[in-house]
């Protein structure tokens, strides 16, 4: 990948899109992870107003500190960057206490993890509406179009996706080129939805390098019969997630009414 040229292309694309949409700039949720760090920096480099919002919900301290350190770094390097920190923990807790009890706490735990992402999305769109900004998505290609590792109408609810055509390794290349804090680059990727230290790999069962490989193999027309051992295990993980999460990746189904019934 020609990293400088790709970086320049994304920055110009962001600027052109915002100009044509007649909006002021961008709002980005900052998690302390690599994807939001790269996305926010690319937005900042457009020269347009870029609002970085940190939205902790029972967040691990190291995630919060990485997010705030990144925002400080942006503020020191770009005059067009501003920030807000909104503690959503009381909002989340109030919602949880208002919901009826359930039989399966495990299912409830998963539903509430996704609820965290949706509360953050709602908050980002609040600021977007208030200041005339676009919500910039932080998903990469493997997450958005490979395994569907995001929350529908949560972190998947965005106006535009500047890094969604980059696989994770390419995001890391751009991060190094941009000078992103090393603490963020070396931190294990996590969605930060559980209030503990579990990583994306813990949840998925495969690393992003492995998932990139599986994505390439599927695109090449390979099947399970072509692999054995760990490769077969990873390929099965990837294809299963790709299959069950198609509902996130395709447009909302519309029941089309036949003309003779209208």
Question: What can you see in these coordinates?
Answer:
The chain is of the alpha/beta class. The chain folds into 2 domains: 1-193, Rossmann fold (3-Layer(aba) Sandwich), CATH 3.40.50; 204-251, no CATH class. It is 55% helix and 7% strand. The protein has helices spanning 3-21, 34-44, 61-77, 89-98, 105-131, 141-147, 168-178, 182-186, 200-204, 208-219, 229-244, 246-249, and strands at residues 25-29, 50-54, 81-85, 133-135. Strands 3-2-1-4 form a 4-stranded parallel β-sheet, with helices on both faces. Strand 2 (50-54), helix 3 (61-77) and strand 3 form a beta-alpha-beta unit. The radius of gyration is 19 Å and the shape is globular. The termini are far apart. The model has no long low-confidence stretch (mean pLDDT 91).
């Amino acid at each position: 990948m020609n990293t400088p040229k790709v970086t320049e292309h994304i920055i110009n694309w962001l600027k052109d899109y915002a100009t044509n949409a007649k909006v002021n700039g961008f709002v980005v949720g900052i998690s302390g992870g690599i994807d939001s760090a790269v996305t926010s920096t690319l937005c900042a480099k457009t020269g347009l107003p870029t609002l970085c919002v940190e939205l902790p919900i029972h967040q691990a301290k190291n995630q919060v500190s990485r997010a705030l350190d990144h925002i400080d770094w942006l503020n020191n390097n770009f005059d067009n960057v501003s920030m807000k920190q909104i503690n959503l923990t009381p909002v989340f807790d109030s919602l949880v206490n208002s919901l009826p009890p359930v039989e399966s706490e495990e299912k409830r735990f998963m539903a509430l993890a996704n609820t965290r992402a949706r509360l953050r999305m709602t908050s980002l769109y609040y600021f977007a509406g208030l200041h005339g900004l676009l919500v910039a998505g932080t998903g990469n290609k493997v997450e958005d179009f490979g395994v569907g590792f995001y929350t529908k109408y949560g972190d998947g609810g965005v106006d535009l996706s500047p890094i969604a055509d980059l696989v994770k390794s390419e995001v890391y290349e751009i991060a190094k080129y941009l000078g992103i804090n090393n603490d963020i680059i070396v931190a294990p990727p996590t969605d930060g939805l559980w209030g503990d230290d579990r990583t994306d790999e813990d949840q998925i069962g495969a690393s992003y390098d492995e998932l990139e490989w599986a994505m390439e193999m599927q695109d090449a027309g390979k099947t399970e019969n072509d692999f054995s051992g760990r490769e077969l295990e990873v390929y099965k993980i990837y294809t299963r997630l790709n299959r069950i999460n198609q509902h996130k990746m395709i447009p909302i189904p519309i029941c089309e009414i036949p003309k003779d019934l209208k």
